[in-house]
Amino acid sequence: MAAAAAGSGTPREEEGPAGEAAALQPQAPTSVPGARLSRLPLARVKALVKADPDVTLAGQEAIFILARAAELFVETIAKDAYCCAQQGKRKTLQRRDLDNAIEAVDEFAFLEGTLD
């Protein structure tokens, strides 16, 4: 299994010395030279985090996790909004597609009214 997942960027398991599986570790794609684990610039994410007056320290791992979570959030809402655009037989996202995605998906309920 480890050989199959090595170049895919997915977590993989490795057997430890006692034969038990080690914790899942995210692996960077090895087939692409210079591949980045995060598509968002970590310095910008750190600047956004530090803009919060309640935050005094932010570790590099926390910044990476926040950047990755933001990427996944944007990817998810963009896919849902694109589905709304496709229902209207369009390929270009419009604001109303985001509004429709926010209304249609319960997980986005916290965003209702934020685009007004």
From TrEMBL:
InterPro entries named among the record's database cross-references: CBFA_NFYB_domain, Histone-fold, Transcr_DNA_Rep_Reg
Domain Transcription factor CBF/NF-Y/archaeal histone: 39-102
Record has Nucleus as a keyword: yes
GO molecular function: DNA binding; protein heterodimerization activity
Pfam families named among the record's database cross-references: CBFD_NFYB_HMF (PF00808)
Stretch list, region Disordered: 1-35
GO biological process terms held by the UniProt record: DNA-templated DNA replication
Keyword annotations from UniProtKB, A to Z: DNA-binding, Nucleus
Compartments where located: Nucleus
Gene Ontology, cellular component aspect: epsilon DNA polymerase complex
Subunit structure: Component of the DNA polymerase epsilon complex consisting of four subunits: the catalytic subunit POLE and the accessory subunits POLE2, POLE3 and POLE4. Interaction with POLE3 is a prerequisite for further binding with POLE and POLE2.
The protein's role, per its UniProt record: Accessory component of the DNA polymerase epsilon complex. Participates in DNA repair and in chromosomal DNA replication.
Protein name as catalogued: DNA polymerase epsilon subunit 4
Source organism of the structure: Colobus angolensis palliatus (Peters' Angolan colobus)
